[in-house]
């Protein structure tokens, strides 16, 4: 088996480094359980990769790596890497350049076997699974690399389902149904990646009992939304959800009205973040999509920010909606650059989710009211039919 390394200009790597690249690729065949084959890795620049990208993929811009599989049974194909782009991206993602380059080689290598993160819903997962497998087996399994692989922009965003309003319906009659615990399980069956509950200061919908049981039985992650309150912090530390999302709260409000005001509160929030992190809980801050707040959020040490999408969702006309959308786009970009995991939520529904779901930096959406509302409508016909049958059967 031969691995050909080619360069556009002067070889940018030492012979020792070239040997490392070849050794890693040879091992990659073994790890994936494939027969070794010849292949070429061409290291080039942005200009040439743009030509390839335009000519073969109709994308007129530079990219990091392109792979061309071969139909020859002994030749696997060609991996083309832009060194220029790789350097830029390594700096952006704060990954050592050489390690980043090796990740790109693995990425191209998997493409040569037909793995494709741009096809369908599950292909990205399969591609990622193998990238992680290679990284770990070849000694690149550090947390920073695995986190980077898992958080690639092309991965579909996750959906965390908020079941508060199932409890709202229960509390409308102060009875025991519908139970948000059941809703949480059904949401998971529908594909939810996480369950969100907001334990409000007045306990108007979700109660401690709901949080406890949901934490026990769900298979995904529990996200506890709460105000910055001593008693709630104590409860969170006892329950230990995957994540706490800190939100501002006013007892008179119908729903959360805006993001957290961090001006003059950084030290207070920082202490709470530290306390929750110490208990093994990740912390997210619900914030308005604005630069000043994001810069302050960074100082608190929180790992996640949830961008408030309320103004986008409630915009009265298209012009205002577009302005709010662009604010979200800019904020998502900045938040990611500041090193946050970026989430978004509030007011998102079946009509307005599309554009925000395409913002690549947003990794997760927190959606409640629209899903619970839709569930009632989708289930209404069946629910009426069941009751009607009971009535008819009673005298037949
Ligand atoms: N994110 C946060 C921080 C919230 O407070 C809420 C409402 O509880 C949501 C997301 C979900 O909003 P909606 O119910 O409008 O989908």
UniProtKB/TrEMBL annotation:
Compartment(s): Cytoplasm
Keywords: Cytoplasm, Endonuclease, Hydrolase, Metal-binding, Nuclease, Pyridoxine biosynthesis, Ribosome biogenesis, rRNA processing, Transferase, Zinc
Cofactor section: Zn(2+)
Keyword hit for Metal-binding: yes
Keyword Ligase part of the UniProt annotation: no
E.C. number: 2.6.99.2, 3.1.-.-
GO molecular function: metalloendopeptidase activity; pyridoxine 5'-phosphate synthase activity; RNA endonuclease activity; zinc ion binding
Functional pathway: Cofactor biosynthesis; pyridoxine 5'-phosphate biosynthesis; pyridoxine 5'-phosphate from D-erythrose 4-phosphate: step 5/5
List of catalytic residues: 198, 225, 346
Gene Ontology biological-process entries: pyridoxine biosynthetic process; rRNA processing
Function comment: Single strand-specific metallo-endoribonuclease involved in late-stage 70S ribosome quality control and in maturation of the 3' terminus of the 16S rRNA. Catalyzes the complicated ring closure reaction between the two acyclic compounds 1-deoxy-D-xylulose-5-phosphate (DXP) and 3-amino-2-oxopropyl phosphate (1-amino-acetone-3-phosphate or AAP) to form pyridoxine 5'-phosphate (PNP) and inorganic phosphate.
Protein name: Multifunctional fusion protein
Source organism: Caldimicrobium thiodismutans
Gene: pdxJ
């Amino acid at each position: 088996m031969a691995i050909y390394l080619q360069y556009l200009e002067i070889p940018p790597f030492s012979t020792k480094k070239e040997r490392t690249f070849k050794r890693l690729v040879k091992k990659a065949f073994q790890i994936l359980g494939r027969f070794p084959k010849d292949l070429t890795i061409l290291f080039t620049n942005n200009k040439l990769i743009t030509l390839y990208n335009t000519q073969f993929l109709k994308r007129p811009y530079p990219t990091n790596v392109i792979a061309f599989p071969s139909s020859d049974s002994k030749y696997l194909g060609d991996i083309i890497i832009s060194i220029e782009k790789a350097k830029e991206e390594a700096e952006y993602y704060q990954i050592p350049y050489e390690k980043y380059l090796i990740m790109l080689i693995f990425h191209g290598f998997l493409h040569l076997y037909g793995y494709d993160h741009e096809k369908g819903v599950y292909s990205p997962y399969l591609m990622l699974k193998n990238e992680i497998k290679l990284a770990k087996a070849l000694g690149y399994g550090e947390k920073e690399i695995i986190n980077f692989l898992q958080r690639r922009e092309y991965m579909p965003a996750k959906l965390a389902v908020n079941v508060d309003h199932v409890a709202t319906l229960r509390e409308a009659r102060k009875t025991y149904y519908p139970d948000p615990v059941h809703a949480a399980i059904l949401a998971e069956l529908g594909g939810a990646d996480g369950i969100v509950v907001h334990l409000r200061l007045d306990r108007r919908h979700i109660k401690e009992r709901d949080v406890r049981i949901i934490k026990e039985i769900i298979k995904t992650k529990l996200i506890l939304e709460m105000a910055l309150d001593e008693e709630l912090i104590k409860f969170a530390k006892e329950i230990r959800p995957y994540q706490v999302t800190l939100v501002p709260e006013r007892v008179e409000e119908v729903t959360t009205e805006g993001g957290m005001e961090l001006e003059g509160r950084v030290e207070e929030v920082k202490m709470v973040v530290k306390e929750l992190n110490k208990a093994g809980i990740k912390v997210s801050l619900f914030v308005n999509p604005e630069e000043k707040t994001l810069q302050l959020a960074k100082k608190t040490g929180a790992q996640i920010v949830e961008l408030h999408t309320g103004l986008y969702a409630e915009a009265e006309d298209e012009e205002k909606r577009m302005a709010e959308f662009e604010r979200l786009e800019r904020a998502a970009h900045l938040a990611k650059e500041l090193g946050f995991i970026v989430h978004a939520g509030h007011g998102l529904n079946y009509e307005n989710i599309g554009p925000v779901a395409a913002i690549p930096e947003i990794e997760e959406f927190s959606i409640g009211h629209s899903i619970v509302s839709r569930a009632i409508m989708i289930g209404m016909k069946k629910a009426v039919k069941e009751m009607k049958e009971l009535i008819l059967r009673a005298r037949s």
